[in-house]
Amino acid sequence: MDIITIIFIAVGLAMDAFAVSIANGMSSRSQKRKNALIVALFFGTFQMLMPVVGWLAGITMAELIMEVDHWIAFGLLAFIGLKMIYDSSKKESGIEGSKLRVHMLLTLAVATSIDALMVGLSFAFLQTSLVTPIIVIGVVTFSLSFVGFLFGNVIGKLFGNKIKAVGGIILIAIGIKMLFEHLA
Fold first, then answer.
1. Element (H or E) spanning 57, and its range?
2. What residue ranges do the domains of the chain occupy?
3. pTM attached to this predicted model
4. Closest CA to 155 of 163, 143, 146
C-alpha cells in the first residue's frame, strides 16, 4: 500500500476524532494546550491501536464486529452528546468546563476509532504490513485532534456555556452519520 493511500485513509479515519475534539474544545475553559494534548493523545493512541486489534481479530470475527460496530459508536456518541446538551442548561461552575474526565475520553476515543478497527480487518484481508499505516494514522489523528480542540476552544470562548449544546448536537450527528453509513 502506497503512502498517499495511507494518508488518505488516516485523514478519513481522523475526521470523527477531529469533530469530537472541536466539541470538547468548546467546553474547555482553562489549560487549553494541556487539554488539547490530552485529547489528542487519547484519540491518536486509540486510532493507532484499533487497526492492530482489527488486524488481530482477522477474518473469523469480521462478520460479528461489522454487525454491531455502528450501533456501539452511535450509542456512545449519542449518550455523551445528550449529556453535553443537558450540561449546557446548567449554570456554569467555572472549573467544571475545564475538566477532562478519563472515562469520557475513553468512551469518545473508542467510539471514534471503531472504524479504524474495521480498517485493521481490511489490512488483515489484504495482508498489509501494519507498521507504516498505524504510525501515519496515529500522527494524523493526533495532529487533527490537537488543532480541532484549540479551534473549538476559541469558538467556546466566543459563545459561552451554551455552545456545549452545539457540541452535543455535533456528537449526536456524528453518531447518526456513522449509523446511516453502515446501514446504507
1. helix 32-88
2. 3-183
3. 0.77
4. 163
